[in-house]
Amino acid sequence: MSTVVVLGSQWGDEGKGKITDFLAAKANVVVRYQGGTNAGHTLAVGQEIFKLHQIPSGILYPGKVCVIGNGVVLDPAALLTEISALKRRNIDLAGLRISDRAHLVMPYHKKLDELEEMRRGTGKIGTTLRGIGPAYMDKVSRNGVRIADLLDERELQDKLTGLVEEKNLLLTRIYDAEPFAAGRIFEEFRRYAEEIRPHVTDTSLLLNGAIDRGEKILLEGAQGTMLDLDHGTYPYVTSSSPAVGGACTGTGIAPSRINKVVGVVKAYTTRVGDGPFPSELKDRIGDRIREVGREYGTTTGRPRRIGWLDANVLRYACRINALNFLALTLLDVLGGLETVKICTAYRYHGQEITHIPASLRTLEQCEPVFEELPGWQEDLSEIDSLADFPSAARRYIQRVAELTGTPVAIVSVGPNRHQTKVLHELF
Ligand code: GDP
Ligand code: IMO
Ligand code: MG
User: Fold this and answer.
1) Can you tell me whether residue 423 is helix, strand or coil?
2) 74 in a domain, yes or no?
3) Counting CB atoms within 10 angstroms of each CB, which of 176, 279, 300, 355 has the fewest?
4) 322 and 216: one domain?
5) What is the pTM of this model?
């Protein structure tokens, strides 16, 4: 029996899609446990690039079961677009399963996401405008529409009548925006229901049955620990739980059935959207890393903010998620720099701290304390063996393990599958 969680250790875009796709070769089932279309996971296979938003990153292998768990907020129109784009590229979707308990992102959620961001003005979060926050708000306030409701026409119609009436009050009276017509949403969603129905099942039943049979399960997080609603840099976070707890609540797999947790760590740090970022680089080195690493959002195309690796963030992710291993990605991008830096602590009012303060104001006043290491000039992306890496690159990997007290299981030096070095087998 082996159930492995792959999750983001920073602010998202760590290369979770690449690592999940790589590990999926040996898994029977791959599961997304939270988030929605805000995620953008890029998979490279040879010259082909696949960008996945809601479909788990195991879908490129025929014969795998790929589950969208109950913790995901599903945008059905976007899902159908994703499915047809994959079908056009001859990807088999027969293994796709969708939880009947997952909540739906409705058209009014997307509108409200936009209106709420406008109202926040300079204090905006910089959301992806995909309706994620409002959809989770409705889930928590028990006003959500679930996949099970979508498949029951009467239930869907009844729910929509009440919900749209309430949303229209908010839209017209608070935001001075156009109301939605419940009937039109019903007609639209009725069509989606028929296309989605064959994929829908009780996925916790499916997953626990697979574990009982000794199958290998890979759980894929979206976003990252620092964007976690509880543990991230609140309020500059997403509205779900990318940290390991979300893997349990978002799938119906209990903690005692999880065997390993792997934190994906980008060799530097990126952040899209607003919020504190102590190790941020606002200079030419940052610009260089952005260009070499092609650090532009998979979902929104926004340039990502760049910074040095932050050991405070990583230690925090190790603690919150009890990470057994790290998967260090995009190490190749740091090649060609004379020296590389790692933020090992923050200085706050003259004192060094090695944790993440809860207060946003405190975090914003934290100065990074850097350690400088020698860089390397070689292109790591085509070096076959880790043993042949320049010593400075090997030293960097070792230093990450030392600073976090967590072994590095995988080193990634390019977007493709073959550009992956395995130090510890995970399955
Ligand atoms: P995710 O959201 O965590 O799955 O990450 P994204 O897909 O949004 O962003 C990671 C980007 O880095 C993608 O374009 C990947 O193809 C690319 N990538 C992943 N691993 C590596 C690597 O080791 N080196 C390089 N150069 N690119 C990588
Ligand atoms: P993947 O899975 C990076 C960020 C947004 C914003 C904040 C809240 O590809 O790593 P939301 O739309 O979720 O309400 O936005 O979270 N964000 C991400 N940043 N990678 C992601 O996903 C993200 N999903 C959301 O930029 O700052
Ligand atoms: Mg991404």
Assistant:
1) coil
2) yes
3) 176
4) yes
5) 0.98
Place of tokens 């933020």: 343
Whether residue 384 lies in the annotated active site: no
Q: Collect contacts of 285-290 with beta carbons under 8 A, ≥24 apart.
A: 285/337, 288/337, 289/333, 289/334
Residues 6+ apart with CB under 8 A from 282: none
Can you tell me which residue has the tokens 């260009």?
291
Residue 282 lies in a domain: yes
| Domain enclosing residue 125, as ranges | 103-198
pLDDT > 70? residue 249: yes
**Predicted confidence band of residue 299 (pLDDT cuts 50, 70, 90):** confident
pLDDT digits (tens, 9 = 90+) for 109-126: 999 999 999 999 999 999
Query: What DSSP line would sit under 162-223, residue for residue?
Result: HHHHHHHHIIIIIS--PPPPHHHHHHHHHHHHHHHGGGEE-HHHHHHHHHHTT-EEEEE--S
How far, in Å, from the CA of 306 to the mean position of ligand 3? 14
356-369 mean pLDDT: 96
Q: How far apart are CA 280 and CA 289, in angstroms?
A: 12
* CA–centroid distance, residue 232 to ligand 2 (Å): 12
Nearest-5° Cα angle at 78, 10 to 135: 65
* Atom of ligand 1 minimally distant from the CA of 294: 14
Tens digits of per-residue pLDDT, 148-165?
999 999 999 999 999 999
pLDDT band of residue 1 (cuts 50, 70, 90) is: low
Answer whether residue 97 is part of any domain.
Answer: no
Q: 214-227, pLDDT tens digit by residue?
A: 999 999 999 999 99
For residue 401, being part of any structural domain is answered with yes
